[in-house]
Amino acid sequence: MAKTLSIVMLCFCLMLVLLGEIQASSPASQKQGQGSNHANGMYGATQGSLRPQECNPRCTTRCSATAFKKPCMFFCQKCCAKCLCVPPGTYGNKQYCPCYNNWKTKRGGPKCP
């Protein structure tokens, strides 16, 4: 009797694990995860969340308020290519992208705008 009960419990646990695996790998849950990333505004602001072709529009937004657009765009795109993220807004918020924040010039100043 105890042996049968333990086999039934084991089968039940395996079914739960398999159901969780199927649900986690379904295309609907992956699309939902991407949508929530866009909805909360963190897409592209966290390290490694951008694709290289998405750097130009992000850097255009980042450098929109500066008087030095050409150097800002140059360094922003260079940093984005390395870090695959651009902090949100036109200034600050570098805590969202540690790579972008920690890359320094030879003199120790910030490399990324």
From TrEMBL:
The keyword Mitochondrion does not apply. It comes from the Eukaryota. GO terms for biological process: gibberellic acid mediated signaling pathway. Keywords: Gibberellin signaling pathway, Signal. Residues 1-24 form the signal peptide. Belongs to the GASA family. This is Gibberellin regulated protein. It comes from Corchorus capsularis.
